[in-house]
Amino acid sequence: MLKEMMENVRKKTPLIHNITNYVTVNDCANILLACGGSPIMADDSNEAEEITTICGGLNINIGTLNKNTIPSMILAGKKANELSHPVILDPVGAGASTLRTSTANDLLKEINFSVIKGNISEIKTLAVGSGTTKGVDADIADKVTDENIDDAVKFVKEFSAKTGAVIIVTGETDIIADSKKAYIVKNGHAMMSNITGTGCMLSAMTAAYITANNDNMLEACLASVCLMGYAGEIAYKKMIETGAGNSTFRNYLIDTIFNLTSEELERGAKYESK
Amino acid sequence: MLKEMMENVRKKTPLIHNITNYVTVNDCANILLACGGSPIMADDSNEAEEITTICGGLNINIGTLNKNTIPSMILAGKKANELSHPVILDPVGAGASTLRTSTANDLLKEINFSVIKGNISEIKTLAVGSGTTKGVDADIADKVTDENIDDAVKFVKEFSAKTGAVIIVTGETDIIADSKKAYIVKNGHAMMSNITGTGCMLSAMTAAYITANNDNMLEACLASVCLMGYAGEIAYKKMIETGAGNSTFRNYLIDTIFNLTSEELERGAKYESK
Amino acid sequence: MLKEMMENVRKKTPLIHNITNYVTVNDCANILLACGGSPIMADDSNEAEEITTICGGLNINIGTLNKNTIPSMILAGKKANELSHPVILDPVGAGASTLRTSTANDLLKEINFSVIKGNISEIKTLAVGSGTTKGVDADIADKVTDENIDDAVKFVKEFSAKTGAVIIVTGETDIIADSKKAYIVKNGHAMMSNITGTGCMLSAMTAAYITANNDNMLEACLASVCLMGYAGEIAYKKMIETGAGNSTFRNYLIDTIFNLTSEELERGAKYESK
Q1: C67 at the B interface (CB within 8 A)?
Q2: GO molecular function, one example (chains A, B, C) (predicted)?
Q3: What is the reported pTM?
Q4: Partners for C (CB, 8 Å, 3+ pairs)?
């Protein structure tokens, strides 16, 4: 199944409109190209709708949020909804400031998201108006573990039912769920949190996956999450073999996305349904 | 001839003022350093003129265009004209949105550009007010091929006559022309479109080339285009040898610009006059 | 001594709020992660104070300065002062434009900085209202040499007395001083000026060092400067061994920060007190 998802992205070259932060934007563009998509970045309100119109999907990321681009997010999101383009939200740092939390909530009100992707702390902030966010990392108290996984899955399914979006919760164990069905993914490596942008890159790549597989968004998300995590494992091995560090790890990660075959993804993916 | 162009850049260390997009800005700075130039990025209207004044050349790139920086582009461009500094325009995505097309047209009205560099779709948008732009890539219908090359060269020469600028049209075959003379370049590799920023990097590097060789802008552009393309070929070979992917390819590309000798450039350049 | 400084950063994982330029922001985030810190970038005035509040230290960098973020710098700086968080200023390009010089001076008036880090030209601009800045590099006439080192150290100590900040002057020889004590550092390699961002990265990393070692800021700065310079030497060696260029050098530099042990830092550091 993951195989077909991946091949669809490579075959269809989905063009993705990204309104995203300036910290990891270059990595997002390069991972979109690596996975077989095509990126366009545009955040001025005077062109947001037009750019979305020529694209296949939209990726909204609120890292380095600023007041000038919030209207662009709303305009692009509404236009994407009108055109039935898939839209993903990455609520980076929701819970860390009032601006981010209230903007994320406003976006949820104004736009129907196909996918919402965050760590457990960010997702909790959106879901229950609580949750503590230490910077952009999930609060340790809110960690998803083998012990609380069933509760977490239930919570995520409920949030999906409430929003109509597929929810991706990233962490040591990732959860991907709609209101009825959930997957947990055990791919990935702790090294991935030693570079900036793995979360942002996952959102950008997922935008390509749901755009090229818009008849099956849940499994498209699953494929993207497995791919990112498995690429992290491979990149980590290569980093150790070559005595490299986190900067080169970033290159290995994107390189792996570029080179991995769909058969390798099928073999390397570690997921189960819940 | 290319040899002297390259050596002049390395000898003179031209300081280039860049008003450019936030996606590829880091790559632009690093390629400027790699080729022997020196970058300064500044886009606030309160300092645009002053910064241009202390520089030797100006690079204006309209990717991630936003309304705050448009006045800065105009101010810097006019000041550069006043000081007879070379100015290059990269109309990224012209044709993709009204904002980009109209801004590019406004810039052409207000500023005398030394060089305009784009793909065939962007250049057509500026030249004839038509042209279709799919994201930031040239429309496939507008591709320059061996069959239509003479027509394309004629069109480019005419646009040069109209604007007074050297025109660079990038693609599988690149065209560099002023109103009287044209070159076509066959360097480069398809891999270059698998990373973000090769176009932006070419513009930034070309700014350094025309600044250090301002008595011969056409051939300075030719040298820069050959260098970028040839570096792409070398970087691709190294990528294949090392089993790397697109992220590492970007590093190899910039590394090659850093290390290539002027003799190697002369030998590797594949161009002819038209 | 440097050993303990380094270990404190790795043990405490200081969360650093960065208001910085969009050219080198990704490198700043990755070097913060490499050294053991944790980055958050936020520059909107609506969240600047809140973000600073959840962080341990603040890094203000005026590269690609724009009028929207200046109020955010002031708000965040005042809040950090109120909370006794360490704050570092990197006055990138002070002296190159009125906007940068006057903003740097305004920041000095409004905020008590723990550390101010620049090249000799930038520091002179702030200190005596003179100094010439060629782009973002120190003016050659103002170079610190073995001949004028005593005068330079005296000048730096005086500027520290005036501002209450530890002053870092970067160059072939680095000077780190408070009003009473100074160190000079001979680590580093000329190659470091062939990539963008070594200065910005040093400021970001130093923010982590002073935050994790806020009882001894002078030596924390010394450790950070030695680490950066020594990492540059190691990265240069690796670059030569592998036939790489400046882009890969950047990766090696950050990788080295990630991998270097505190014992290696102690052995490699080349400093003396003055």
Answers
A1: yes
A2: magnesium ion binding
A3: 0.96
A4: A, B
